[in-house]
């Protein structure tokens, strides 16, 4: 490395080399985040841009070949072999000065023709987000697969459905889990749509107003696997894709938090309907009886962190349309949000598969605490012809009387029911013993609800099948997307090879 080289402009526009404070800025804002993903992305940007410059005749092919060979050698040596020096500035001058050290300013200096920090760093940003977004999409699919598999085992498992965390109506465990499947379907759709807005190329826009060189923006985009072009130089700086992806991750984690909270509560002694297996629990250092569901707890913590990362992204992106450095700072919290969501899905999926649900206790609870009260009111509407509000009053009085006397739903007699109706309506109303028994049977309540959205196995099974089909289709779509990216990588390498012949 040539020791005297410093960052752009030193000795020309800038009379002094970078201060310790400016070097600290370069380190914090750029160099500290230059990981393997960024290293590979920089190599690909340099290769694609140089190939395009030669193909359109902006630089000679023989000089392009020298640049391409030097970039490939740099890439082959690996990130660890490339020392970053804050005296040389940010990532762009560090990498360009490396090429200048190898080839001199006349040949090496042509690599940056027709581009700027602006389009370079936005391309780098988008290439850094791509693998993280793909990993999150894949993890979201795998988690939905786990949810569907567990739900499929519990189509007949009765449980009390809750509202306000109180027993509401009888449902099944499959119905409960299927609700989260549908939430995660929307999460996937949001992320997949965000991918299309992420995967567009800024290359050729330079910093604002494009370039007078006859650049082929579409060619550079294709070599980098982008599937569209940013259409205005002022729009170059807007990293709303970082905000969108972070928001999508935050919404996904909101849903995951709800599920993890349910499972966490259900695993307590007070609920006692879920057992976390020993391999997923941590015991106390002082209380030998404890088996703490720490993975579920961590999902709750990760959810909070991701919400915070989103707030950080939005606060960072609020500035002027010309705040380039400020906009770039949004990448780090957004990437952390994607990585946290990916980690959470990958952790919770296998744990979910290993959870043990107490089917007998769930079924018993479904009928113990008046979750079937609505069905009793509905029976009065159907069998006796009362309005629903009249029936609601009658059943409300009956439930209140039973709770006060410690009478369980299964112990209610026709006489008790008739007395509650007489006291409420001022006239006798009765249900046959068979109708009363059926109305108080939680399984009967579930089986009646066969319309779309209901908990009946007849309603749930077709939705599970549809969800299976959707997962398969989305997996195929992701496979095709990955194949297009691989094809772009291969096209880039072939184009480089053709220049080196």
Which keywords apply here?
18 helices, elongated, mainly alpha, two-stranded antiparallel ribbon, 3% strand, 501 residues
Can you describe this structure?
The protein has 501 residues and is mainly α. The protein has helices spanning 20-29, 36-55, 61-77, 91-108, 117-152, 173-198, 217-223, 240-266, 294-316, 324-328, 331-354, 359-368, 373-384, 388-405, 414-425, 433-439, 442-448, 457-500; strands spanning 158-163, 166-172, 274-275, 356-357. The strands form 2 sheets. Strands 1-2 form a two-stranded antiparallel ribbon. It has a two-stranded antiparallel ribbon with strand order 3-4. α2 (36-55) runs antiparallel to α7 and α8 (240-266) packs parallel to α11. The chain is elongated and about 100 Å long. It starts with 19 loop residues before the first helix and ends with a helix. The model has no long low-confidence stretch (mean pLDDT 95).
Can you lay out the helices and strands and say which pair or pack?
Layout: H1 20-29, H2 36-55, H3 61-77, H4 91-108, H5 117-152, E1 158-163, E2 166-172, H6 173-198, H7 217-223, H8 240-266, E3 274-275, H9 294-316, H10 324-328, H11 331-354, E4 356-357, H12 359-368, H13 373-384, H14 388-405, H15 414-425, H16 433-439, H17 442-448, H18 457-500
Antiparallel strand pairs: 1-2, 3-4
Helix pairs in contact: 2-3, 2-5, 2-7, 2-18, 3-4, 5-6, 5-11, 5-18, 6-8, 6-18, 8-9, 8-11, 9-11, 13-14, 14-15
């Amino acid at each position: 490395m040539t020791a005297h080289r410093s960052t752009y402009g030193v000795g020309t526009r800038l009379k002094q080399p970078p201060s310790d404070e400016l070097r600290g800025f370069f380190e914090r804002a750029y160099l500290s985040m230059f990981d393997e993903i960024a290293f590979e992305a920089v190599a690909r940007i340099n290769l694609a841009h140089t190939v395009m410059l030669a193909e359109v005749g902006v630089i000679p092919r023989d000089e392009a070949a020298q640049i391409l060979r030097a970039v490939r050698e740099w890439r082959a040596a690996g990130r660890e072999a490339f020392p970053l020096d804050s005296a040389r500035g940010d990532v762009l001058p560090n990498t360009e000065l490396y090429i200048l050290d190898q080839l001199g300013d006349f040949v090496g200096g042509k690599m940056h023709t027709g581009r700027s920090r602006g389009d370079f760093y936005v391309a780098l940003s988008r290439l850094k987000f791509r693998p993280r977004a793909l990993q999150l999409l894949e993890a979201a699919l795998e988690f939905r697969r786990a949810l569907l598999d567990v739900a499929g085992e519990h189509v007949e498992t009765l449980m009390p459905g809750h509202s306000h965390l109180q027993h509401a109506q009888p449902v099944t465990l499959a119905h409960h889990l299927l609700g989260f499947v549908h939430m995660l379907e929307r999460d996937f759709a949001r992320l997949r749509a965000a991918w299309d807005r992420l995967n567009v190329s800024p290359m050729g826009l330079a910093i604002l107003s494009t370039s007078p060189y006859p650049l082929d923006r579409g060619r550079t985009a294709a070599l980098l696997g982008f599937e569209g072009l940013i259409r205005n130089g002022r729009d170059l700086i807007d990293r709303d894709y970082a905000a969108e992806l972070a928001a999508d991750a935050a919404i996904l984690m909101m849903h995951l938090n709800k599920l993890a909270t349910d499972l966490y509560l259900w695993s307590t002694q007070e609920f006692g309907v879920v057992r976390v297996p020993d391999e997923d629990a941590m015991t106390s250092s002082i209380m030998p009886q404890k088996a703490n569901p720490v993975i579920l707890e961590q999902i709750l913590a990760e959810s909070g962190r991701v919400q915070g990362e989103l707030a950080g992204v939005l606060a960072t992106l609020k500035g002027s349309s010309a705040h380039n450095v400020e906009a770039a700072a949004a990448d780090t919290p957004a990437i952390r949000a994607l990585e946290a969501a990916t980690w959470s899905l990958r952790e919770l999926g296998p744990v979910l598969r290993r959870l043990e649900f107490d089917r007998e206790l769930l079924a018993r609870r479904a009928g113990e605490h008046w979750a079937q009260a609505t069905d009793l009111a509905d029976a009065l509407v159907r069998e006796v012809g009362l309005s629903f509000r009249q029936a609601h009053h009658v059943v409300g009085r009956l439930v209140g009387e039973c709770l006060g006397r410690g009478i369980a739903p299964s112990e209610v007699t026709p006489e008790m029911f008739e007395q509650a109706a007489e006291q409420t309506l001022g006239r006798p109303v009765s249900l046959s013993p068979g109708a009363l028994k059926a109305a108080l049977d939680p399984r009967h309540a579930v089986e009646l609800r066969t319309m779309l959205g209901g908990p009946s196995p007849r309603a749930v099974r077709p939705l599970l099948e549809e969800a299976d089909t959707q997962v398969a289709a989305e997996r195929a779509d992701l496979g095709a997307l990955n194949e297009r990216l691989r094809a772009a990588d291969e096209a880039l390498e072939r184009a480089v090879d053709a220049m080196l012949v």
